[in-house]
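User: Run a structure prediction on this.
Assistant: Running it now.
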Amino acid sequence: MTTIDRPAGALAGIRVLDLSMVLLGPYATLQLADLGADVIKVEPLTGDTTRFVGPARHAGMSGIFLNLNRNKRSIALDLKRPAGRETLLRLAATADIFIHAMRPRAVSALGLDDDAIRARRPDVIYCAAVGFGSAGPLADNPAYDDLIQAGAGIAALLGRVNGGPPAYVPTVLADKVVGLTAANALLAALFHRERTGQGQSLEVPMYETLAAFLLVEHLYGAAFEPPLGPVGYERLLQATRRPFRAADGYLAVMPYTDRQWQAFFEITGTPEAASDPRFATIAERTRHIGALYARLEQTIATRPVAQWRALLDSAQVPNMAVNDLDDLLSDEQIAASGLLRLHEHPSEGLLRRIEHPVRFSATPPGHHLDAPRLGQQGPQVLAEAGLDAGEIEQLRAEGVLRVADDAGPESSG
């Protein structure tokens, strides 16, 4: 694919210097890159560890990395050496956004805190995606998705509803939720700068962000002081809130409004339920949700999935097939929307690429760069920042800069 140095899109002309690795920060900057920002991915000489997680045709180019880092340019620098740090600061002078996911002590030790970056670019938007808010006692603790799911209450909730020990949601929930939150905050900061000319500093903490995400509905009765009830949204804490077993498989069924429940009772021939005051309104259904879900579970077991889907669709009662991961690869809705497309990567061959799911009528997200090899655009990026060919070659010769040709893709076997 032809490289487009200045992509179109809502964020065309915005440059992002991204020091983050793994998933949280890269997921945040993926949103910006798809919208047209020039994201420069600053990697250590060994590369982002996500390059090596999961199947790959060549070492350092895993499937996760390829979809998470499209539309970005890679430069590999040794930031622990003075020449590497100074090179990064020269790049920072060209950046609208500077983002990292390091603990406070680590970023201070590198001399890359807010003051250092702002000295080179006064109106920069400096974003620290951290594990824990700097005002708390855990500020310098390490943070990973599993730890944050545990601390924020997700793991305990899963154990509670499943009647077993605490468990993790089998997706990197914290990283992606916090990544989206960081992207949203960065867009707001860009808008503020557009109106006022002022940059600012952002701190996006994983722990507090995921706790806030969870407590939107689960603060429940404790939203009041004194509490009017326990924490925990009752409907979501029922063991029977799950896909229901039909005669030949499983089905997700979700009547929600008064009309939908009345329609469900009609097609299932249960008039006594339709007239039961416990199920007449959303407030009463919430109070008696255990009994209602038990009834739903018993009813769905009486017919095959296909029969239920036809009946429920005809009555406009919300329902959904229970897809496994493999099913998503051939799902009609996903295919029609173009979410997954086959694409030929110049070094990695034919890939299944995840497209940006949001549709813009005027500034659509696009695909202008394939995920880079380690350090692939380093010389180009440095030249744009004003370094001459001699300076770039010296950095390379001293082992401060690593480019793709120094470590081309090797077969992963």
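The longest strand covers residues 38-43.
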